[in-house]
């Protein structure tokens, strides 16, 4: 109790609260701009922390972290452009809601789900951090491989109307992920003697091209020669309705737990947590036919899941000194600059500092809900702009976002090529999400498969003799087979009813 009181004294000062407020607002701006990832935002603001004493600068970075993960959902919902990779799953249900005039409702659910997911992970961080960190330490190459295979099985849930087209998209993503230097043997693959391709293709320009540039080309085609129309969407209130909260509360809680566990595993991230949460929400949903057409449950799941990663990723960083992702690696550096060495001893030697960080995260998540709900009317005005205004703005953001990643015009070219490919795939009714899923999980699957076989000297049974990897493989089989089993059960029920 004494440590918590000291933490309250440390954090609850006017300057620290203002720094958290500033961090959350700046984070939302970073998340809204396509191409500016959470990592880039944190890295750009990292030098500012040098001028603060104690954990004040850390609290600002935590605010940026929380705000940026949420901010990516705003363009994902309004414009079908994932502001961050973690918000790619949000486009599946969020944008269809916006298109049918429910942009405000979608933003309300997204904001509340993000805050709830973050708060759940924060509570886990405070009370069960050591236990989850110990569980995450059991992960080696076989467990990472099985986790990635489980993630790739989600393709069947995000494929839209055709699972075959989803599998084709996932295969394309996996093939693109093989480009570059082989991390095990050092050989170059599919580089065509191009220096740019040695490090592989960054998936963010592809993400911007497929989702934003491709959709913009579709919009240009549909509006060519048409009369200019301006559609105004009405907004009702600031807070989600009681019925929406009741319908999504279970999904928020479940996705918050999923995101916390995924975040606690070093090397994973919000994108994996979002897709896993979406898949589980669809599995448990009674109204599966709503998914893909603007399901509020399908929107709440990835938002709660990807925001819960923020607290989960802090678990191995604070308890073991192992960063859970690239963002917590930067925060780890900021802590060390302030003379704080994350690890078990930090809880004993400077408990007021570590509990101050936990309290700062909690305040940032609460402020996220407040600013998000208050700003909904402002955010939703974006969708009221006519297409002749929005289209050039989106195109400009695509160009700036893809260039800003590495300050490379080649990334812009990759984005444009991906955009034209995305245009034709959208015309053929392909879903873009399986391609992104394949790109994200491809390197994880390949590297950990080969590392596992090196560990076992070529013995494939290593994946079924380790309990955690076996559990993930069983979950994968269930994820693949459950749609077929459910459809057969429905067919039998329909036959029994007709008879």
Structure description:
With 499 residues, the chain is an all-alpha fold. It has one domain (2-226, 243-492). The chain is 73% helix and 1% strand. The chain contains 22 helices and 2 strands. The protein has helices at 2-11, 14-32, 38-45, 56-71, 73-79, 91-99, 103-137, 141-152, 163-177, 203-223, 242-264, 270-284, 296-320, 326-337, 344-349, 351-374, 376-384, 387-406, 409-427, 433-455, 462-465, 467-498; strands at 180-181, 188-189. Strands 1-2 form a two-stranded antiparallel ribbon. A hairpin with a 6-residue loop joins β1 and β2 (188-189). α3 (38-45) packs parallel to α14, α4 (56-71) runs antiparallel to α14 and α5 (73-79) crosses α7 (103-137). It is globular. The relative contact order is 0.18. The mean pLDDT is 79.
Short description:
By secondary structure, the protein is mostly helical.
Features:
two-stranded antiparallel ribbon, 2 strands, 499 residues, 22 helices, mainly alpha
* Approximate shape: globular
User: Can you tell me the number of structural domains?
Assistant: 1
Structural class, from helix and strand content? Answer: mainly alpha
Whole-angstrom Rg: 22 Å
Tell me how many strands there are: 2
Q: Please bin the fraction of helical residues.
A: over 70%
Reading the helices and strands in chain order gives HHHHHHHHHEEHHHHHHHHHHHHH
Number of helices: 22
Instruction: Characterize the biggest β-sheet.
Output: 2 strands, antiparallel
């Amino acid at each position: 109790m004494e440590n918590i009181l000291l933490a309250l004294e440390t954090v609850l000062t006017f300057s620290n609260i203002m720094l958290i407020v500033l961090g959350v607002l700046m984070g939302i701006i970073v998340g809204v701009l396509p191409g500016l990832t959470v990592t880039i935002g944190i890295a750009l603001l990292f030098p500012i922390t040098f001028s603060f004493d104690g954990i004040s600068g850390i609290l600002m970075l935590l605010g940026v972290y929380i705000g940026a993960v949420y901010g990516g959902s705003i363009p994902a919902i309004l414009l079908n452009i994932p502001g961050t990779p973690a918000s790619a799953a949000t486009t599946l249900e969020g944008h269809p809601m916006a298109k049918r005039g429910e942009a405000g409702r979608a933003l309300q659910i997204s904001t509340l789900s993000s805050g709830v997911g973050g708060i759940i992970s924060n509570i886990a961080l405070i009370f069960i951090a050591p236990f989850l960190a110990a569980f995450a330490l059991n992960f080696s190459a076989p467990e990472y491989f099985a986790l990635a295979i489980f993630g790739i099985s989600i393709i069947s849930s995000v494929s839209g109307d055709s699972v075959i087209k989803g599998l084709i998209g996932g295969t394309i993503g996996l093939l693109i992920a093989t480009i570059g230097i082989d991390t095990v043997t050092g050989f170059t693959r599919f580089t065509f003697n191009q220096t740019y391709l040695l490090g592989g293709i960054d998936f963010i320009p592809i993400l911007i091209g497929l989702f934003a540039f491709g959709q913009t080309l579709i919009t240009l085609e549909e509006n060519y020669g048409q009369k200019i129309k301006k559609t105004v969407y009405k907004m009702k209130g600031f807070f989600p309705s009681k019925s929406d909260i009741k319908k999504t509360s279970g999904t928020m809680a479940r996705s918050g737990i999923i995101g916390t566990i995924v975040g606690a595993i070093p090397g994973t991230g919000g994108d994996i947590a979002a897709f896993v949460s979406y898949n589980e929400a669809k599995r448990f949903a009674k109204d599966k036919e709503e998914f893909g057409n603007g399901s509020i449950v399908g929107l709440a799941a990835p938002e709660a899941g990807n925001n819960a990663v923020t607290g989960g990723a802090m678990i191995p960083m604070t308890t073991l000194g192992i960063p859970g992702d690239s963002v917590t690696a930067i925060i780890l550096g900021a802590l060390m600059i302030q003379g704080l060495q994350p690890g078990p001893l930090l809880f004993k030697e400077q408990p007021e500092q570590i509990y101050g960080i936990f309290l700062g995260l909690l305040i940032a998540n609460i402020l996220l809900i407040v600013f998000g709900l208050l700003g909904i009317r402002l955010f939703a005005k974006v969708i009221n702009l006519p297409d002749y205004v929005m289209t050039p703005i989106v195109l400009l953001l695509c160009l700036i976002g893809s260039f800003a990643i590495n300050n490379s015009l080649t990334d812009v070219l990759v984005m444009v090529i991906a955009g034209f490919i995305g245009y034709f795939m959208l015309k053929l009714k392909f879903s873009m999400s399986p391609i992104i899923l394949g790109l994200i999980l491809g390197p994880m699957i390949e590297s950990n498969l080969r590392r596992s076989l090196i560990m076992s000297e070529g013995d494939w049974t290593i994946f079924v003799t380790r309990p955690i990897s076996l559990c993930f493989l069983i979950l994968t089989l269930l994820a693949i087979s459950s749609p077929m089993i459910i459809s057969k059960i429905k067919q039998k029920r329909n036959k029994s009813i007709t008879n």
